[in-house]
Amino acid sequence: MNYLRQTLFFVVLYCSFFTAAAQTPVTGNTNVAEKEKPARLIRLAESHRINENYKAGISEAQQAAAIALKLKDFSTATKAYVILANIYAATKEFTQLKKVSDSAMLAAQQAHSPAVMAYGYYAQAYLYNNIDNAELTLKYSQMGLKELKKVPDHYLQAKIYYLLYALNTRWDNIPKVNLYARQATENALFTTDYNLLGNCYTALSVAADYNYGITKSTAQRDSILYYLKKVEEIYQQHPKEIAPRTYGIACINIAFYYLKNFSEGDKEAKANAIQYANTAQTVMKDAPNGEEIMASGLGILSEYALREKNFPMAEAYLMQAYSLMQSEEHPYYYTLVNVVRSLSQLYEQMENYPMALKFQKKIAEYNSKIFDQKQALNVQKLEIQYESEKKKQ
Question: Whole domain around residue 53: which residue ranges?
Fold first, then answer.
């Protein structure tokens, strides 16, 4: 298993895209301010989405879609629905995701434009990727790319290729992981969407890690770090145009790179790992929903404390991580399981068996919550699959 997708506390490689605000002119007698309002709302919605202020993002994207439809600006309406699809996927509201993805498709069909149809197909591919329907994800992705052969759009091509890259990581299909990560990055380089580009560089680092796992080539190992450093470079040059989460995950993966690939006696590697683990803490401190990334950084710091047999320090880091995760309204239970497992193992080493047992029980408790969440999400997914099949028939 690729370690960049399974860091110490299971940090998911998060892809957060900027959706370009539509600038389609609208004919008629409507005043200029009204014509420009949907595009302005889309920019605001995307800004709020990227910063995970989902409530504001939903409100603005819905307003943008409503006004655009009133003006018969179907291009802008389609892109507003794509933003809503991104938000509902992030919040796991799959029923709403299905509705807005279908709305994107309906709006795109009325635009009579290959470029806009590609957005509609992307919305469908995005939906089916999120409900684990690989067949339809591939189908709509390829349909989107076919439309883009008529009217090239590097931005949307990068998004679709990134979606195909992510799909193939599920299957550990290394040739296609490499192919689509590269194609996504090549297209993103032609855009000014720095967050998209940062995520594409992270994808290339994952591809390099796959390659290193097979070849054990020093060049491939170095490529992992090279691409993660490119994310850092973008963040330093465009700090307001790349999501803190995108850079925070890159920092965690850099720290983990040094932890796993260098000997315990390598002081320079240790210093680098600690530096990036701490940087992740700083970057995510005031960002929303950054607890699992901060917990991952604390986990790496605890690993170094353990190497030095500094049990009190390791305990302090892990307890801080545990407190962070518990403070979330909707905790990421995969991370919590890893935190309490590490605490149980630590207390066992310290021969504090009552505490070891306490946290061992917590593992079962949080695994049960993961199971319940999966069941609830699967119900949503099956309902959507059933409705889609009925419509197809």
Answer: 13-20+34-117
